[in-house]
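User: Hello! I'm new to structural biology and keep hearing that structure can be predicted from sequence alone. Could you demonstrate with Acidic leucine-rich nuclear phosphoprotein 32 family member? Please show me the input and the output so I can see what each looks like.

Assistant: Of course. The first part below is the input, the amino acid sequence of Acidic leucine-rich nuclear phosphoprotein 32 family member. The second part is the output, the predicted structure written as tokens.
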Amino acid sequence: MDMKKRIHLELRNRTPSDVKELVLDNCRSNDGKIEGLTEDFKELEFLSTINVGLTSVANLPKLNKLKKLELSDNRISGGLEVLAEKCPNLTHLNLSGNKIKDLSTIEPLKKLESLKSLDLFNCEVTNLNDYRENVFKLLPQLTYLDGYDKEDKEAPDSDAEAYVGLDDDDDEDDEVEEEEGDEDAAPEDEDEEGEDEDEEEGEEEEEEDISGEVNIAYRCTTLHKPNMGNFVNA
């Protein structure tokens, strides 16, 4: 599926201005460029284009609110200077698995003043001597490189943090559903208790009937029992 068609499907009858997240992973980009994405996606905060065959981000539209950009597993080897112009408020950038070989390729990222997290896993640049130290010097605004800060402390799960509010809402909805379910179940419990009581009363009545029958039978037997003493005396 090509990128234009994928974008159309992802819209799901929404207008581009309603979209805050757009995931285009594993679709096909013709000529290695971004297609079908326009400045109409003015509210877009998260864009993922993993493994779509990109060689360039030159066609990226102006997205002022974009915070997170996933470009991993593509064939990008340069041209990153457009990011500062097109996505000035970018905070997270993932370039893992691209063809970035030297520090000069990522030097234009210095203009991304809000950039806090950069991933370059599986790029040749990571094989350079003092790679981490030099990247932090080149991009002083960075807090995390490849998931770790300067002191090798692991970054928190930024995705989880970003959607904490959504998770909380889901939990609240679940709690409401559970409470409603408990209220609905209550009458059933009462009915079950009532049935149990009716069954117990029925059993008691049966016991009384049985005991009554036994007493009647006993009395009848006693009344009609022959007096053996009279036969002996005779």
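User: So the tokens describe the shape?

Assistant: Right, they're a compact way of writing down the 3D structure. Reading them back into a model, for example: The chain has two domains: 3-155, 168-221.
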